[in-house]
Write a structure and sequence with these properties.
The chain is an alpha/beta fold. The protein has 2 domains: 133 residues, Rossmann fold (3-Layer(aba) Sandwich), CATH 3.40.50; 191 residues, Dihydrodipicolinate Reductase, domain 2. Helix content is 32%, strand content 22%. Helix 4 links the parallel strand 4 and strand 5. Helix 7 crosses helix 9.
Length: 348
């Protein structure tokens, strides 16, 4: 039944999450934004930073600032092994390039640390299953940092889907395309470049979250021109998923240009249309087929919203949980199974 008003997000106050001492493994673009979001919006401590060189780690530490979490200068380590060996680190955030996520998450788990791994958790479902098994064997927390599903906006969507406000949902539409300069790592085949791992994860994860795992996967794509990517990584991909119950998803991802980055969930009674970029903090419209409309808005703070996933991890780790129900490991693996099938369809 269509609601008279939208539910409120049930997402707890990030400031209320028990503060943990975070070790940040990696010093790139996403690591910097994750640290800044923690320091601005939570009581989490950026306790240590690890890089391949001490100078890089020290430079990262020197650039940190924030009104909440920076109670001491974080330790800087010139190797990843040194960071995970620090007995004072409560949890490791793996933020190295995605082709190294599996290796570095394994390193941290073998050191006995709870781990939050940037998406994708691995380069295929087998790598994700291996990490999940290792975490389970050691009783350690493990979570993929697919930050979208931890946002307050997506808790409202979650409640709408659970209540049946959209009716029977059988369609998901999602698109994510960005422009990249020729020197970006996404254009290098030796770094597992192409749009799927960086961008395509979001549309695929949305579709599998809403519809479940598909029974059929189809995909077509093109490679990047040689002047943009001499190693000729995939440039754009169109994907169609079909579930056994008749659900269909039409998805698109590209590194050739900035697309609307829009998404919609279509039900028999109502359609939920996300503002672009759909995977970031922002708004959406819920509209019935006879013209009734409800509107949700939240501040469009971009990657400053990364703290929501950190707060969730801190709560779960402090409670002794080994994963988060907001992004269970089974869902991470299901997304990667679809990505594997897409890769197989595009194999040349």
């Amino acid at each position: 039944m269509f609601p008279s008003s939208l539910p409120e997000p049930r997402t707890p106050d990030p400031m209320a999450a028990p503060p943990l001492r975070w070790g940040i493994l990696g010093t790139g673009w996403i690591a910097a934004r994750f640290a800044a979001s923690l320091l601005a919006h939570t009581r989490q401590q950026v306790y240590a930073v690890g890089s391949r060189s001490l100078a890089t780690a020290e430079s990262f530490v020197g650039a940190l600032e924030g009104p909440v979490g920076l109670e001491r200068e974080p330790a800087a380590y010139g190797s990843y092994a040194a960071l995970v060996a620090d007995p004072a680190v409560d949890v490791v955030y793996v933020a190295t390039p995605h082709h190294l996520h599996h290796e570095h998450a394994r390193l941290a788990l073998e050191a006995g640390k709870p781990v939050v791994v940037e998406k994708p958790m691995g380069l295929d479902a087998d790598q994700c299953r291996e990490l999940a098994g290792l975490a389970a064997d050691r009783g350690l927390f493990l979570m993929e940092a697919l930050w979208t599903l931890f946002l307050p906006k997506f808790d409202v969507v979650r409640q709408l889907l659970e209540s049946g406000a959209l009716g029977t949902v059988r369609t998901v539409l999602a698109d994510l395309g960005e422009h990249f300069e020729p020197d970006h790592r996404i254009l290098r085949a030796d770094l597992s470049g192409g749009p799927m791992y960086d961008l395509g994860t979001y549309p695929v994860a949305l579709a599998t979250w809403v519809l479940g795992e598909p029974a059929e996967v189809a995909a077509v794509g093109t490679v990047a021109p040689a002047d943009l990517s001499p190693s000729r990584v995939d440039a754009q991909t169109a994907i169609v998923l079909r579930t056994a119950s008749g659900g269909v998803a039409a998805l698109h991802t590209s590194l050739l240009g900035t697309s609307p980055t829009a998404a919609a969930i279509v039900g028999s009674q109502a359609t939920l249309t996300f503002d672009g970029p759909f995977y970031q903090p922002g708004g959406f419209t819920l509209a019935t087929h006879d013209g009734r409309v409800l509107r949700y808005d939240e501040p469009r703070i971009g990657h400053a919203g990364l703290h929501w996933e950190a707060a969730e991890a801190a709560r779960r780790i402090s409670a002794g949980d080994t994963e988060s129900p907001l992004r269970p490991l089974a869902d991470t693996i299901a997304t990667m199974r679809v990505m594997d099938l897409v890769a197989a369809r595009l194999a040349r």
